[in-house]
Amino acid sequence: MNRFEALMCRAALVFALLLTTACGGGEEEPQTPSAEPPREIEVDASSTLYGFVGDTAGNPVEGVVVSDGFQCVATDAGGVYEMKRNAAAEYVYYSVPAEFKIRTGHDGYPDFYVRLDTSQQKIRQDFTLERLAGVERNFRLICIGDPQPAKAEEATRFEREAMVDVRRTSTASAVPCYGVALGDITGEKPDLLAGVRRSLGTAGIPVFALPGNHDKYKVDDATPRDASYFRYTMGPVDYSFNRGDVHVVCMDDVIYTSGTEYTNGFTDAQLAWLRADLSFVPKQKMVILCYHIPLRSGTARNMAAVKALLSEYAEAHLMAAHTHYNENFINTDADGGLYEHIHGAPCGVFWHSALNGDGTPNGYAVYDVEGAAITDWRYKSSLHDESFQIRLHRGGDTHSGFTYPYTPKTVIANVWNADPEWRVTLCENGVETKAMTLVTTYTDAWSVGYHVGVLGRGDNYKSPCKHMYVAEPNDVRAALKVVAVDRWGNRYEQSEFTAPDDFTDARSPVY
After folding, report:
1. Cα-flanking dihedrals φ and ψ of residue 386, to 5°?
2. Across all residues in the chain, what is the average pLDDT?
3. What's the CA gap between 110 and 433, in Å, rounded?
4. Do residues 250 and 110 make contact, with C-beta atoms less than 8 angstroms apart?
5. Angle at 138 between CA 133 and CA 141, to 5 degrees
6. Residue spans of beta strands (DSSP E) within 33-100
7. Are strands 262-264 and 254-256 parallel, antiparallel or unpaired?
8. Is residue 169 within 8 Å of 144, Cβ to Cβ?
9. Are 125 and 114 within 8 A, CB to CB?
10. 262-264 and 286-290 as β-strands: parallel, antiparallel, unpaired?
11. Rounded Cα gap, residues 120 and 49, in angstroms
């Protein structure tokens, strides 16, 4: 038995135990119930994968996009889909229409797919969809960066911190909420994957997931890693769903070239799938593409083609993670000017603290959607109030041997969700006196001081800080305050400075 076969066997045991504990036994994975009663349908003799899609009243649903992971087709007026199944297909699944509920399975994970019995020459798989009371044109999308637990206690922290906080956010929301976990669901620990899947289900809302580089497990140095084990536990990795006037696409953008080396982008087969998926989406819709490794203005495989596809829509946004720091990156005009949101992680830098390497607190992002546009977004720090958006430091302070390269009177503001349209100003005695200058060339000395100086971690913990603002006050004796106003007009203030070597907010919570 090779390593992969051992992983698959172990996965079956872990997942079976999970389901037995959660619901007293049941299927290996949640399965969308088929339409009842089964009806006779007519399909082409050459079709090897087909079925009927109906609502809970048994009525056929037209226009539902169904995929085997390589091609996409839509149901006809009779609710029937059909295709010649790709020989490598593992699942059949549908893109949840905006008019219908996103079902969840036994463990709370979205239930939109069924594993294929490939021993059959022809496969019929029906699906039943439950109608919503109305199309949800206003909703919130919650994007979660790398959970990445490598130990059971880290998986527990993820559930107790990030997922508890997500549940509070969704419960308090006046509109429906949906989530996407943007890869590195574990830190190369397959035994933890089913448990983190269950943790995603504790949010009380559907939270989808996609793979990161740490979700592809090594066989040996020469063999490229792939997502086969991730798919076994989590389901399809290239899929989509619809809410309101928004089409959300989740894709695997990690391409391993060996057991140790990887790059990012999308294969030609993935590009063909994406083109087929988007062919059913009206151009007046907004498209949100979710993946793991940031594209930026770089050389990711098929990046230009993907961005060209997205540029055809009324609005498009890119959602990424991977970096363990927070960055709002706007692509060049040549790359379509697309906004790429690069999310800080709920694990910070691998669960050693309560913050990312750039000083951003552990957390996730919340996007308010109205119609075919994002109308507001904010970074939500786990277990902090939503207003917590700024941390202040003084230029002359030293944090466990690390100092900012500024004069002692310089005010330094780490505004972790800022982008070029934010206005960050320094106030003296209640009066705004000057705009602060954005500096992106330095690390956050306080964060590095804790991770490296106190904990003794390495260079991975010296992330660049893309949202540091500096200014020197006119009067160093004045009462100082920093005011940050985001592109939506939300105002955030901070007047408390972090004292030298005060790492209270950096330390991991104690349970």
Report:
1. -60, -25
2. 93
3. 51
4. no
5. 110
6. 49-55, 65-67, 72-74, 80-83, 91-94
7. antiparallel
8. no
9. yes
10. unpaired
11. 10
Q: CA torsion 53→59→64→66, rounded to 10°?
A: 0
Q: Which helix (H) or strand (E) element contains residue 469?
A: strand 468-471
H or E element that contains 194: helix 193-201
Q: Is the pLDDT of residue 234 over 80?
A: yes
Tokens at 302, concatenated: 């098929």
Q: How far apart are the first and last CA of the chain?
A: 40
For the chain, helix, strand, coil in percent to 5 are 20, 30, 50
DSSP-H helix ranges across 402-507: 445-448
pLDDT at site 374: 98
324, 379 contact by CB (below 8 A): no
Q: Which two tokens stand for residue 221?
A: 């140095």
Interhelix angle 193-201/3-23, nearest 10 degrees: 30
> Distance of alpha carbon 449 from its chain centroid, rounded?
28
Helix (H, G, I), strand (E, B) or coil at 461: helix
Residue 232, token pair as written in the block: 């076994």
Across 271-352, where does the E strand assignment appear? Answer: 286-290, 315-320, 327-330, 339-342
Peptide bond preceding 37: is omega within 30 degrees of 0, i.e. cis? Answer: yes
- pLDDT for 336-357, tens place per residue? 789 999 999 999 999 999 999 9
Amino acid at 22: A
What count of residues does the chain have?
511
Residue type, 219: V
Phi/psi of residue 322, nearest 5 degrees: 80, -40
What is the pTM (predicted TM-score) of this model?
A: 0.93
**Residue entry with tokens 């607190």:** 361
What gap in Å lies between CA 99 and CA 109, rounded to an integer? 20
**How many C-beta atoms surround the C-beta of residue 476 within 10 A?**
13
Is residue 44 classed exposed, middle or buried when 0-12, 13-18 and 19+ CB atoms within 10 A define those classes?
exposed
